[in-house]
Amino acid sequence: MVKEHQLKVHNSLSGQKETFEPINLDNIGMYVCGPTVYSNVHLGNVRTFMSFDMIYRYLKFLGYKVRYVRNITDAGHLTDDGNVENDRFVKQSKLEKLEPMEIVQKYTVDFHKVLEKFNLLPPTIEPTATGHILEQIALAEKLIDLGFAYEVNGSVYFDVEAYNKKGLDYGELSNRNIDELISNSRDLDGQGEKKNPVDFALWKNASPAHIMRWNSPWGDGFPGWHLECTVMSTKYLGDYFDIHGGGMDLKFPHHECEIAQAKGSNGHEPVKYWLHANMLTMNGQRMSKSTGNYILPMQLVDGENDFFEKAFHPSVVRFCFLQAHYRSVLDISNDAMLASEKGFTRLVEAIKTLEILQPKNTSTVHIADLEQKLYTAMDDDFNTPILIAHLFDAVKMINSIKDNSEDISAEDLTRLKTIMHGFVFDVLGLQTENTNVNSDKLDGVVKMLIEMRNQARVDKNWALSDQIRDQLSALGIQLKDGSEGTSYTF
Ligand SMILES: [Zn+2]
């Protein structure tokens, strides 16, 4: 049963918030572009996947059955020139002296580990590009037959001009004008085999040095990146499905190419609602390995980094990310994380307080109003910051009941618990296990031990200082020495 609601989603295709009306009621199809598994997953990508995890969770919470497909790109992710030296898998395998498929395995495992740490639910299908080579060849052949693609020297390209001549409007998602695109790119050198610089590869001929290769009607080669998403989304969700998600940076050209491939082969739009999640910055700047403004997701949790004074519980990171709307840029910093930790702790304390509240005969609080506000926030294009603001109204309410300045009936208390658990655990995906909440005494004891260890270090009693650190570590309490003193995490 799907709950009565008025969900609106921002559709990138129309640029508007639209009422969400599933193609098949009770059975939603959602496709999200997954990772290219040639290196550790970026924190920014974790944010994107977390945004769609929250969306997936809310749809399920409303009672929808959702088929959630998120692919693994394990081949064919080339830069546009098609040079084998630029194949990320081949490049990384040389660097790490591993087989390309060992690179794939290593970083697929890493990806799953990181997402599990942040409590993301797995998709219901997680297909791989290499598992769908035959379907990709078949789609390229179909596009050639229909006059939307052409073969040159064993490679196949999508013919953007032919597509547009049929009035199919390449560039509709990112509002790009095809004529401008063509004239802007005409001057670029190295047009190579393509008829037109905006044409994109469906299949690339493999040079003898290329290890990851498959046989095709055009000789040995490998698929272009855009093709796999069209093949896997339509294979599992049908050629018209509800939601396609991904990072904003994928709008062009990746998603534009997906639309062209699908419309070229089926004659109609493949997706009803295109949803795009925004990026993550750190200390006001783009995260990038080359500038050094960069942190791996796990480093935020284990505290092994130079940007944050302490380690943070994965749920604190999650809470911080969800305090921004998924379509807004989110900036993280030491201060922002500390503030999130405070907020999260207040929320968790209130949820624990719920268990000790004593019901009265009547209520002075309005649970139905609160519940309505929580749903309204999420129904408005998954507005998690507003949802969280209302959850803090609930925190105030819970504390007032605890202080006896408000009363709650037994029936309302049960309802309040259900709502709070539903939105905090099921929708936001926060976890309260292993947080040091409600453990003021333990906190005091650990701080006392830290002070004793500090004194031991002043006294140069290294044996005692190491003993304190090691024994705490054996209990799962990690100390971290920083410029601001010693902090600890569970
Ligand atoms: Zn994709």
TrEMBL record:
It catalyses: tRNA(Cys) + L-cysteine + ATP = L-cysteinyl-tRNA(Cys) + AMP + diphosphate. It is found in: Cytoplasm. ATP binds at residue 289. A motif ('KMSKS' region) lies at residues 286-290. Zn(2+) binds at residues 33, 229, 254, 258. Binds 1 zinc ion per subunit. InterPro entries: Cys-tRNA-ligase, Cys-tRNA-synt_Ia_DALR, Cys-tRNA/MSH_ligase, Rossmann-like_a/b/a_fold, tRNA-synt_1_cat_dom, tRNAsynth_Ia_anticodon-bd. Keywords: Aminoacyl-tRNA synthetase, ATP-binding, Cytoplasm, Ligase, Metal-binding, Nucleotide-binding, Protein biosynthesis, Zinc. GO terms for biological process: cysteinyl-tRNA aminoacylation. Residues 373-439 form the Cysteinyl-tRNA synthetase class Ia DALR domain. Its cofactor is Zn(2+). A motif ('HIGH' region) lies at residues 35-45. Its EC number is 6.1.1.16. It is an enzyme of class 6 (ligase). Gene3D superfamilies: Cysteine-tRNA ligase, C-terminal anti-codon recognition domain (1.20.120.1910), HUPs (3.40.50.620). GO terms for molecular function: ATP binding; cysteine-tRNA ligase activity; zinc ion binding. One of its GO terms (cellular component) is cytosol. It comes from the Bacteria. Belongs to the class-I aminoacyl-tRNA synthetase family. Monomer. This is Cysteine--tRNA ligase. It comes from Algoriella xinjiangensis. The lineage of its organism: Bacteria, Pseudomonadati, Bacteroidota, Flavobacteriia, Flavobacteriales. The gene is cysS.
